[in-house]
Amino acid sequence: MPGIVIVGVQWGDEGKGKATDLLGGKTDWVVKFNGGNNAGHTVVIGDEKYALHLLPSGILSEGVTPVIGNGVVVDLEVLFAELEALHARGVDTSRLRISANAHIITQYHRTLDRVTERFLGKRQIGTTGRGIGPSYADKINRVGIRVQDLFDENILRQKVEGALETKNHLLVKVFNRRAITVEEVVDDLLSYADRLRPMVTDTGLLLNDALDRGEIVVFEGGQATMLDVDHGTYPFVTSSSATAGGAATGSGVGPNRLDRIVGIVKAYTTRVGSGPFPTELFGEQGEWLRSRGFEFGTTTGRPRRVGWYDAPVTRYATRINGLTDLVLTKLDILTGLEQIPVCVAYDVDGERYDEVPVNQSDFHHAKPILEYFPGWSEDISGARTFEELPQAAQDYVLALEKLSGSRISVIGVGAGRDAVIVRHPLVD
Fold first, then answer.
1. Which element (helix H / strand E) includes 205?
2. Domain residue spans of the chain
3. Phi (first) and psi of residue 371, to 5 degrees
4. Stretch (H or E) spanning 164
């Protein structure tokens, strides 16, 4: 099964980087197919911790070719800062390949993202302010700057001039900001062109050729299902396709090449930014779960909102993505609880909903209907087989599997690279 997609099941930060890294020794290619440097992955290898924001986590695995696909928006400053930081730590980054069709995040995208978010006030989306949304907006409006444009200065200048013609009116007349000159944008982008050129290619061709040879290609999604621009909690979503379907459009391979769809889900739930979150915890319980799970953004450092496991959300993600497997992460964080609540349905104004309501207003007002499962006090971080888990932990996993609609193939029991239990291998 050469084509494996890894996607988040909840609102992101589920541990997708670790899941990708787990496949590293059996993988030939790892492709990032959506998002930008708003999608942070943390990978722990021995005593070393790596925080990746833009690069595919496969860059840490020897012999793997990491690819930034056409569905990604690329901040070149961030790209080269990450590459230099990894190089300084002895990581070989020379294999990285970048799609010529990927779009660029420019200075004016970052500026517009920040000022627009402040302008929205109470209606803020909760963006990272890194220009991702405005870059995708330009892509859809057909005024974006692509990686390949950096290698033709005349084309680049024309495109920047066209983009700034309207954006400067907005910056000056609406947001009371200074106009951005064409020269400063062009000069900034061209300063990266020579370093970028050796990495840029037709990545769709490379990946299809690799699949034809039977090589294993992992498609690593940023953000998660509930942040998908089509299927998430709109408008409190990201600006790209974070579901399994985005792996095809964001990389240039056909959907029939995707053999296994792996969803990553925490043993509880978190999200960042604004938007509905039925199982959200506040007060002491929320602080306990946040601090114990160290739920702070890899990219932003801001505290994540936390809540109990939401089974209807997982079932929804199973359907939307066509999940074949689940990777359950951070089971160890729940150690010490006498009882563990799980959301099995919602109450919306007295009516029970067993699935995620189609109406966003209903989802916003949904209250979780909880079932309680016995907890455990034993340290599970050293467990490497399912049978080594306490019976209560085994029962909890089996209950989530039944509620979620997909088998749980891998269980994360700690932060380390090897702190996993494999019930069903993700690669045969």
1. helix 203-212
2. 3-99+200-262, 103-194, 264-422
3. -115, 150
4. helix 153-169
> In the CATH scheme, what is the homologous superfamily, with its name and number, of domain 264-422?
Adenylosuccinate Synthetase, subunit A, domain 3 (3.90.170.10)
Q: What is the pLDDT of residue 385?
A: 97
Q: Which residue has the tokens 């930014």?
A: 273
CATH number at 103-194 = 1.10.300.10
Separation CA 178–CA 391 (nearest Å): 63
Q: Which residues pair with 307 in a beta bridge?
A: 269, 280
Superfamily of domain 3-99+200-262, CATH level 4: Adenylosuccinate Synthetase, subunit A, domain 1 (3.40.440.10)
Q: Look at residue 370 and give its three-state secondary structure.
A: strand
| Amino acid at the residue 171 | L
Residue whose C-alpha is closest to residue 7's, from 230, 344, 294, 318: 318
Residue 176 confidence class, pLDDT cut points 50, 70, 90: confident
Element (H, E) at 341: strand 339-348
Q: Region 197-215: what's the mean pLDDT?
A: 97
Reported as a pLDDT band with limits 50, 70 and 90, residue 200 is: very high
C-beta separation of 426 from 22 below 8 A: yes
Give the model confidence (pLDDT) of 250-278 as tens digits: 999 999 999 999 999 999 999 988 899 99
pTM, two decimals, is: 0.90
Beta pairing, strands 367-374 & 339-348: antiparallel
Task: Give catalytic residues, as residue numbers.
Answer: 13, 41
Handedness of CA 392, 14, 235, 113 (dihedral sign): positive
d(CA 204, CA 50): 28
Q: Over 70: is that where the pLDDT of 353 sits?
A: yes
